[in-house]
Amino acid sequence: MPPAPPCPCCSGLRYRECCAPFHRGEAEPPDAERLMRSRYSAFAQRDVAYLWKTLHPDHPDRARPRDEYLRDLRAYAQGHQFPKLVVMDRRPPDASGLAQVLFFAKVFEKGKDRSFVERSDFRHDGTGWRYLSGVARLPKELPVPPESLTLATFPE
């Protein structure tokens, strides 16, 4: 039997022990970082239904028709590869319930580097953590190497 594949979120765990239970709906990610990792894995696995499920109700894409959003997301996921994720920083929920994660996503489209750094905002919706919004920057727009950033040094 071949070894179980590693999780695309780069946690060091096998997929079946890491993000798969979230993708199958068996559990909710316990915090914002695990949700962010599971969303990256969902892009890599082309699990667009999970990406829709984990959008916060206040995310602007929730105003779009679900089928249209899923079609666009599926086309994006199928046209890209997601080989590496690096989480640089995280902030637990503040008094308003907002949690943040800063990450560097390695992404390629037909051999072209489409990688980015994002500061993502997450909020719990009563069921689980959900992706609320994000601010992304291309590596060339950054004053320092992406992996050296923190939430405090991420440019607005």
TrEMBL record:
<protein>
    <recommendedName>
        <fullName>YchJ-like middle NTF2-like domain-containing protein</fullName>
    </recommendedName>
</protein>
<dbReference type="Pfam" id="PF17775">
    <property type="entry name" value="YchJ_M-like"/>
</dbReference>
<dbReference type="InterPro" id="IPR032710">
    <property type="entry name" value="NTF2-like_dom_sf"/>
</dbReference>
<feature type="domain" description="YchJ-like middle NTF2-like">
    <location>
        <begin position="31"/>
        <end position="134"/>
    </location>
</feature>
<dbReference type="InterPro" id="IPR048469">
    <property type="entry name" value="YchJ-like_M"/>
</dbReference>
